[in-house]
Amino acid sequence: MTCNEADILLHALIDDELDAGHAREVENHIATCARCTAALKTYREMHAAIAAAEMRFTAPAHLRQRIEAAIPQARGTSRRSLLAGFAMGSAVSAIAATGIVAIVLRNHDEQRIASEIVSAHLRSLQAGHLTDVLSTDQHTVKPWFNGRLDVSPPVIDLTALGFTLIGGRLDYIDGRAIGAVVYKRRAHVINLFVAQTPNAGHSAARTEDVQGFNIRRWRDHGLNFWAVSDLNADELAEFSDKFEKAMQANGTG
């Protein structure tokens, strides 16, 4: 240990703030160093002088009274109101925690379903799996779903708008059968998955990238829609916009 290191630790040694190992190192150094021995003696004398001096000051009584008078007096809190406050805080915390859990679970479900959508899309691209009913006529494709699903998906011919209807099929997402209406944009397949939902409200379409595929999701007329493709996001958004406008013009298809 050097003198500089020992000098830093001398005050801690005097105040008994060093652990046994460091205290032993400082003491061993002091035993062989006249300079640090003298410094320790000076520090101890100064420490004793400060401890012996009357350095405390007692404030006069009138100062205490002035300070207490300036502090607003808080109303007494009854046991009942205190318990009620704790109960209210616990209830608010429970509600907040429940809301957070619900959001986390909903996000987890959405991610899981999005992953299943992509898997179903990939399966459909295998030979012989794309359509159960092959037709460009919406009046052939839509009736095919009747009796196979509780609610038939809307089938809209968008060929004139650049998205060719080629058929439909049944698929399984989230453990239940749903309809898939199949379109093409040049060589790109678009699977439009449609499932019934108890939520009848409308939600605006949004796009997300899942495993390298774009998924465009929205809700309308008590149905959830997922359009999935390797099309770029702008063209897939164009597809969903034209589909929604056609639904508004033609009812639910």
Structure write-up:
This protein is of the alpha+beta class and 253 residues long. It folds into two domains: 3-52, no CATH class; 101-250, Phosphorylase Kinase, domain 1, CATH 3.30.200.100. 49% of the residues lie in helices and 21% in strands. The protein has helices at residues 3-14, 20-31, 34-52, 61-70, 79-124, 138-145, 233-250; strands at 133-134, 164-173, 176-185, 188-196, 203-210, 213-220, 223-229. Strands 1-2-3-4-7-6-5 form a seven-stranded antiparallel beta sheet, with helices on both faces. Strand 6 (213-220) and strand 7 (223-229) form a beta hairpin. Helix 1 packs across helix 2 and helix 1 (3-14) packs parallel to helix 3. The radius of gyration is 39 Å and the shape is elongated.
User: What is the number of independent domains?
Assistant: 2
Going across the biggest sheet, name each strand in turn.
Answer: 1-2-3-4-7-6-5
Structural class: alpha+beta
- The first-level CATH class name of the largest domain: Alpha Beta
Find the CATH superfamily of the largest domain: MucB/RseB, C-terminal domain
CATH topology-level name of the largest domain = Phosphorylase Kinase, domain 1
SSE string: HHHHHEHEEEEEEH
Taking the alpha carbons of the first and last residues, their distance comes to 88 Å
Q: Roughly how much helix do the residues carry, as a percent range? A: 40-55%
**Biggest sheet details:** 7 strands, antiparallel
Individual helix count? 7
Determine Rg (CA atoms, Å): 39 Å
Give the averaged pLDDT, no decimals: 84
Low-confidence regions: 101-105
Strand content: 15-25%
